[in-house]
Write a structure and sequence with these properties.
The structure holds 2 protein chains of 2 kinds.
Chain A (H helix, E strand, L loop, with lengths): L4 E5 L6 H4 L9 H5 L10 H4 L5 E4 L11 H8 L4 E4 L4 H9 L4 E3 L11 E5 L4 E4 L4 E4 L5 H9 L2 H15 L1
Parallel strand pairs in A: 1-2, 2-3, 3-4
Antiparallel strand pairs in A: 1-5, 5-6, 6-7
Chain B lengths: L6 H10 L9 E5 L2 E5 L4 H11 L9 E5 L8 H16 L4 E4 L4 H7 L8 E4 L13 E4 L2 H10 L1 E5 L2 E8 L8 H12 L6 E6 L1 H5 L2 H9 L8 E4 L3 H9 L21 E6 L6 E3 L7 E3 H4 L6 E4 L1 H4 L2 H11 L9 E4 L4 H9 L2 H8 L2 E2 L20 E4 L15 E4 L2 H10 L5 H11 L1
Parallel strand pairs in B: 2-3, 2-5, 3-4, 5-6, 8-9, 8-11, 9-10, 14-15, 14-17, 15-16, 17-18
Antiparallel strand pairs in B: 1-7, 12-13
Helix pairs in contact in B: 2-5, 6-8, 12-14, 12-15
Classes of the chains: A alpha/beta, B alpha/beta.
Bound molecules: iron/sulfur cluster (SF4).
Chain lengths: ~170, ~425
């Protein structure tokens, strides 16, 4: 199926220390990402492929405000994060670095390794293995623009560049 | 006709420049006040602002506080503090507080807060300003850079949880005990929601105690923790040299506004609470943990080392001594707190009891300053978080409690009910 990535399924309360261990925070992003989620799945960082999808339960990304939690997933090529609920700072950080995060109540119907297609703007999730299509709250337009630009910094760059040429 | 709105919705509507706002919708809000500290601010902002080729949207609306790395403990922290000073100078930030105290204490002390403001802070405990009727939320580094550059941010309009605290807190029971019990009972997953506190016990509280409620809205996972202003609020703002606008008291939820959840807590029934390692939600009545030996007692942080917190500790410690084998560290939340506690005799009560007075700043709370723990050590702390490894070694055990409870443990050498000591102090008096 085109655009499908494998699902990596995790439970509730995946915290920022599991995503980006505090004691390794001085490492560069690429190195830090190698330890992403290793406390719950030591093979994740090695085996995750670009385009794969991370699936979590409740309160995904709780803990500190560190952006490296979302950045690590993005560095590894994760296309989107689906979870029943997100900690608010993680959610904002994910959008800000261009990583789509979708509220998905039916995560329990996803099994590790399922082929998942995510259309964040339309709010559509397709499980290619069970052949089920879900519709969830799409990521609002305002935030899709940020994601499409590759994150808030590139988005702002265009904004400031436009302001300058208008002046 | 206009809808009935909660206080959070009213402030967002004003900041977004629209009349009605619906929970769940995304709006762009103008920020009235942006706050950052030495850890989250200039060192993250500067390279990004340079990349964007822009300065601060309005240097007068930016407050920068050096509190996390103060005073410097090594060359690295010294260079972060230096960089912070240089940023304030180069970007024309007048409201720069260098080692004057913890950022959340600084905002109200220097009159920066007033009802109805939209406050964005580069720190998760920014909701503390909600005690002054501000919509105050914490943001990550990229969000804050965007705010610093544009003065705007997006908000998903939150639903509001109303928490009514009725009755009166008993002697020796504090706002901290309320919050630890709420972390347990409401959970820490109230993301994208605002919390609003009210009821008789809140009306009777000082601003210092109200700030505890708002501060720990962060532990509930909430966007912010609001308390509608009243005369207590306005008097506090005036005393700090802040501005009180004629319509300040209009910043309150409409009668009949829609809450997504309503929760009642009876203050009369509440006992001192202790949260066991490693979560504020592991709270239980002090009786459950009484007798647990403590190596260190820590009175510190934005939430737990204000003047009144030191006074609570002093009431327990007066005429008593810290137990052998236990150490009591006190890091007042700000320079003004230290000064006031020196003037009214609180500090000498603490030092006579054997407390060690530490610099004002985040200190051990952020795991960056002095007062950290070794593997296997146990600490009872008046701070707000006891996540694994936050206060030193990851095998250390941190319990959370009110300043009364921390002082009582310091005297007993084990976790103890402060009410018994306060009753004893009264009899002796
Ligand atoms: S004292 Fe602790 S909780 Fe408060 S701002 Fe500093 S590190 Fe954060």
């Amino acid at each position: 199926m085109e655009g499908a990535g494998r699902a990596w399924v995790f439970g509730d309360n995946i915290d920022t220390d599991v995503l980006a261990p505090g004691f390794l925070m001085k490492l560069p992003a690429e190195e830090l990402a190698k330890h992403c989620l290793e406390a719950v799945d030591p093979d994740f960082a090695r085996n995750v492929a670009p385009g794969d999808v991370v699936v979590g339960g409740e309160n995904f990304g709780l803990g500190s405000s560190r952006e490296q939690a979302a950045i690590s997933l993005k560095v590894l090529g994760v296309r989107a994060v689906l979870a029943k609920s997100f900690a608010r700072i993680f959610y904002r950080n994910a959008i800000n670095i261009g990583l789509p995060a979708l509220f998905f109540p039916d995560v329990d119907e996803i099994t590790a390794g399922d082929r998942i297609v995510v259309d964040a703007g339309a709010g559509r999730i397709v499980n290619g293995v069970t052949d089920k299509t879900y519709s969830v709250a799409p990521i609002p337009d305002h935030l899709m623009h940020v994601i499409a630009a590759g994150g808030l910094m590139p988005h702002l760059k265009t904004r400031f560049a436009t302001q300058c040429s208008e002046a | 006709m206009s809808q009935k709105r909660t206080l959070a919705q009213k402030i967002i509507a004003k900041a977004a420049g629209c009349e009605d706002v619906k929970p769940g919708e995304i709006l762009v809000c103008k920020v009235d006040l942006a706050m950052a500290h030495d850890s989250s601010g200039p060192r993250r902002w500067r390279p990004r602002l340079e990349e964007l080729g822009t300065g601060l949207w309005d240097p007068d609306k930016v407050v920068i506080v050096s509190d996390h790395y103060v005073p410097a403990v090594d060359a690295e922290s010294a260079s972060i503090l230096k960089l912070t000073r240089e940023f304030a100078r180069d970007y024309g930030v007048k409201h720069f507080y260098d080692m004057r105290g913890i950022c959340h204490a600084i905002l109200p002390e220097y009159g920066h807060l007033r009802p109805g403001l939209f406050v964005a802070g580069g720190d998760s405990h920014t909701p503390m300003a909600g005690a002054f009727g501000c919509y105050a939320a914490g943001y990550g580094a990229t969000d804050m850079t965007a705010i610093a550059a544009t003065g705007e941010t997006w908000v998903m309009v939150p639903e509001t949880i109303r928490v009514d605290i009725d009755g009166r807190l008993g002697d020796g029971v504090a706002a901290k005990d309320v919050m630890l019990s709420l972390c347990r009972d409401l959970g820490m997953d109230n993301n994208f929601r605002a919390v609003e506190y009210g009821g008789g016990a809140v009306a009777a509280m000082s601003m210092s105690e109200r700030m505890v409620l708002s501060n720990m809205a962060a532990e509930l996972g909430a966007e912010t923790g609001l308390i509608a202003p009243d005369e207590t609020t306005l008097a506090h703002i005036r005393a700090a040299g802040g501005v009180v606008e004629p319509d300040a008291l209009q910043w309150r939820s409409d009668e009949g506004a829609d809450y997504c959840k309503s929760y009642h807590l009876d203050a009369n029934e509440l006992s001192p609470q202790i949260a066991a390692p490693h979560s504020p939600a592991n709270a239980a009545s002090v009786a459950v943990h009484a007798g647990t030996p403590v190596d260190q007692c820590y009175i510190g942080a934005c939430v737990g080392a204000k003047l009144e917190d030191l006074q609570m500790a002093a009431r327990v410690l007066k005429g008593r001594k810290v137990a052998d084998g236990t150490r009591l560290l006190v890091a007042p939340s700000s320079a003004k707190t230290t000064e006031a506690a020196a003037k009214d005799g609180t500090l000498s009560v603490l030092t006579e009891a054997g407390a060690v007075i530490m610099p004002s700043g985040c200190g051990a709370c952020a795991g960056m300053g002095a007062g950290l723990l070794a593997a296997g050590e146990t600490c009872l702390s008046s701070t707000n978080r006891n996540f694994k490894g936050r206060m030193g070694h990851k095998e250390a055990n941190v319990y959370l409690g009110s300043p009364y409870s921390v002082a009582a443990a310091a005297v007993a050498g084990v976790i103890a009910d402060p009410r018994e000591m306060l009753a004893g102090a009264k009899e002796a008096a």
